[in-house]
Amino acid sequence: YLPENHTSMGLTLTYLGNCYRELGEYEKSREFLEQGLKIKKKHFDDNHRRIGWVLFHLANTYKALGHQQEAQKLFDNVLKIYTSYSDEGNIEAAHLLRDMAEIYFGKNQLDDAENLIKRSAKILQDHNHVEAYKSLETLGDIYSKKSLQLSHVHNIQESQNLKLEALETFNQALKIAEKYFPNSIHIERIQSKIKTIEKEKIY
């Protein structure tokens, strides 16, 4: 049994909030995440990475609810908090870098997103960490989005080059996912992205 305001209760509430968001129950997600944040703030100052972590997930829930302005304010706050920890070179820093990359991806600041996610992937790969596939998948998403944008301005050759990089990166992510998560939804998702690229004409 844990006291009502124990820090582990804040962690549990945050995980529950994430689960409800994945299930599409966004109001329940918001409720649990806000409760988790309230508890975390009793134990950590506003610029601590643990606060940033809850804010990141709460921002994603606000975004899912269509509250774009509130979500962007939280994402900006997360970026400020995480920047202080992003140069540590450990596994936790790799996770923070990936979260930051996803925020910049959502803002369409793709060069910033690419730089951050490459750092995240390198740390995780150097440690042979299972979550390297997540960072590689995000990198593939960035290459794909860059390729699409270049195709719209008729820079076909560079667009095709980025498409090939996306394909290679997704295949790297798939190899890791197959090793640790056979027959999982992660494999299906990455395979779907690979098939989408392969269906398109690559010169």
Structure description:
The chain is mainly α. Helices cover 78% and strands 0% of the residues. The chain is built from nine helices and no strands. The relative contact order is 0.07.
Global morphology:
globular
The largest sheet is: none
Low-confidence stretches: none
Please count the helical segments. Answer: 9
Counting DSSP E segments of at least 2 residues, the number of strands comes to 0
Structural class: mainly alpha
- Average pLDDT works out at 93
Element-by-element helix/strand order: HHHHHHHHH
Give the CA-CA distance, first to last residue. 61 Å
Radius of gyration: 18 Å
Helix content: over 70%
Strand content: under 5%
Task: Give the gist of this structure.
The protein is mainly alpha-helical and 203 residues long.
Characteristics:
203 residues; mainly alpha
Secondary structure layout plus pairing:
Layout: H1 7-22, H2 26-40, H3 49-65, H4 68-83, H5 91-106, H6 110-126, H7 132-152, H8 156-180, H9 185-199
Helix pairs in contact: 1-2, 1-3, 2-3, 3-4, 4-5, 5-6, 5-7, 6-7, 7-8, 8-9
